Each structure stands twice: as structure tokens, then as C-alpha cells.
Amino acid sequence: MAEGLKHINTFHKYYFLFIPVLLVSLNKDQTITAIKVLTISFGCYSVYSILIYLGFFNNNEYGFNPNNPTGHLRYLISTQYMIFGTFLSALFLYYSQSKKEKGLFILIGLLCFFALFINNSRTSQLSFFLILLIFSLLFLKRYIFNIKALVLIFLLLFSSIYFLYENNKLSRFENAYNELNYVINNQEYKGSLGVRLYFNKVGLDILKENLFFGTGPHDNRILLQEIEKNDPNYLGDGGNGRIINHFHSEQMDTLTAYGLIGYSLLFFSIIFLVYSLRKQPLYYYQSLAVFLSLFFNSFANKTLSVRPLNYVYIVFFLLFAIIAFKSNEEEKEKIENNG
Q: What's the start-to-end Cα distance of the chain, in Å?
């Protein structure tokens, strides 16, 4: 109990400060502006990453690496920002009536798109492809004979693969495939992917014993570390047997900490929020892009338990919730006035 409260105080204490402020102070127009400002900030970080890639910073002094130009944030964080920037910009571009806005967001979208594929996160890059596939199905269902949409999707796929190839990133996907084959054939959990599969196997064992309510936050990680220490077959990432204190899967971390009940509350609250925005296509698709990124990245990375990424996801949840609430209030007011 004490460890769980300590964990909440460490990772979630600021929620209680900024959540009430945002809910009380923002109207709908200010909320939309906030989403635009966040999108611009992702574009700015992408410029920073691209400059590192181009060698504009001293590697020895700052410790930056052009082969993985993540900057001051870990690539699991920065690349998710780049996913947000790409899809949010594309949707602002599609729905905006302002030529200036269109010009701004096409630039931000291109910068974020390029920055995503010069960095090293296989999970984020794969998440991008999966989100693009889902959006393609949604849009092509409405515009099945839209040649422009088909050409755009083809260009995005071709450009993505080209950037991965030119920056020697495709080999990382090949390594993941080889590691998966090794695990299947030898039952040894070697390499980055192998360790993640091992943690998921351990997580399922923990979940079976604590199915509905979980072990509580932090206690699940203590159990994980104890299992690692006591398992003679545990190899660790790189084969060094290093004890790791996270499942490297936010999905499994949440399930083992809060059980099926806690996980379901989080999962269905997001589903309900996205569904409540269905009458407003721009914010419906934007919320879908943000939370699909959370969903897919959470299978192999930290998301809600790493700062400042967790704050960004919570802020997005609040901003979309405010838009949904204010829009619902406007609709009720119109009905009352017409009645």
C-alpha cells in the first residue's frame, strides 16, 4: 500500500494540479488553440532532431548522435511526439479553411514525418504504419475512388520505406524478426525483442494470480524483478542478465498493476471519449490518431509511466474531453432554443 502511494506521488502528483486548472479555465476555442500550439511544439522538436541529424551540434560536447538524433529526450518519447505532429498536422491541413494555416501545418507535418524516420524507434515507426493503415481504410471507405487519397497514401508509404532504407533503419526490423524466430525455435529470450517477450510472459503469470484488481502500482514491478533474479534462464537485454524494473510494455504494466477492472476503466474511458467526438470529424480523427499511438506504442514501450510523455497524453485527453463537453453543451442549447 505504502509503495503504491509512493508510486502515485512520484508519477502522478502533478495531475491534481493541472487537471482542475485546464477543466475550469479553457473554453472550446482556447482548447482548439492549445491543440494547435502543441502540434507546433512537436514540429519545433522535429526541427531540433533534424538539425542534429544534419550535424549542426557538436557531438562530443552534447553527446548527440546523428544516427539517432533524438536530442534531449529518449527516442521512445520524441518519436511519439513526431507521430502526433504528423497526423495532427495532416488533419488540420485537410479541414482548415485558412491558407496560412494550411501552409504552416503542411510544413510541420513534413518535418515531423521526416524526423520520425531518421530516429531509431521501431515501435513508433510501426505504430505510424498501423495508424496510417487504419486511416486509409476509414478514408477510402468514404472516398473509394479518390485518386488523390490513393496517391498520398502511396507517397507516404514509399517515403517512409525510403527514409528507413537510406538511414540503415530497415536492419532493425530484420533484427527483430530474427530475434522472434530465435525465441520461437529455441525458447530463449535473447535480444531487445526477446526480453520484451519474456516480460510479457512473466506479466501474464502475474496477472493470472491477480486477475481482477492487479497487484497495485509498483508492487507489480517488484514481483517482476524478483522473478528475474530467481530465474536462471533469464538473460536480460544483451545477455548480461541485468535486472530491469519495468515490463517495457505499458499494456502489461497497467494490467498487472490494476487488473482487468482498472485496465478496462482506462480503455473504455478513451473509447467513450473518441466516440463522443464522432460528430466533429477533425477532433474525432485527431483523438483517434493520438490514442492509437498510445495503444500501439504501449505494447513495447513505456508511455503513461514515463515523463513528460505521460503528461502530454493526459493533456490531450483533457483537451479532447473539453471539446466533447462544450460541443455537447452547444448542441443542447441549440435544441432548447429551437424548441
A: 53
Cα–Cα distance, 128 to 93 (Å, whole number): 18
Residue located via cell numbers 506479466: 203
Q: Distance (Å, rounded) from C-alpha 87 to C-alpha 131?
A: 9
**Whole-number mean pLDDT of the chain?**
85
Give the per-residue pLDDT at 116.
93
Residue 301 phi, psi dihedral angles, 5° rounding: -145, 165
Could you give the CA distance from residue 281 to residue 293 in angstroms, rounded to a whole number? Answer: 18
DSSP letter for each residue of 61-91: HH---TTS--TTS-HHHHHHHHHHHHHHHHH
CA trace torsion 320, 304, 137, 124 (10° rounding): 130
Q: Is the pLDDT of residue 136 over 80?
A: yes
- Tell me: the pLDDT tens digits for 155-200? 777 788 877 777 777 777 778 788 878 887 777 787 778 888 888 8
Whole-model pTM: value is 0.88
Query: Could you give the C-alpha distances from 233 to 107, 199, 300, in angstroms and in order?
Result: 50, 13, 21
